[in-house]
Amino acid sequence: MSKTIYVANLSETVSEEAVKTLFTPYGxxxxxxxxHDAETGKPMGYGFIEMDDEPAIxxxxxxxxxxxxxxxxxxxxxxxxxxxx
Length: 85
Description:
Layout: E1 2-8, H1 16-23, E2 29-36, E3 43-52, H2 53-63, E4 67-68, E5 71-72, E6 74-77
Antiparallel strand pairs: 1-3, 1-6, 2-3, 4-5
């Protein structure tokens, strides 16, 4: 099984490679998706990383609050989208 990790408070200049380098010590990464604004293409400051269950849990505990490019990251298990309005 795999878990999706939500990572927020990313700097506008952070690269997918930098995120990969940060998370790789905890296990294999299945995918990384950094979110950009659909209209402007500007980074939105968050993204998603998919890893196996145990490495994902370790990464969440180790990296939540860790600094990357001068910003303190928020790292949690991703939750599904809410359909309530």
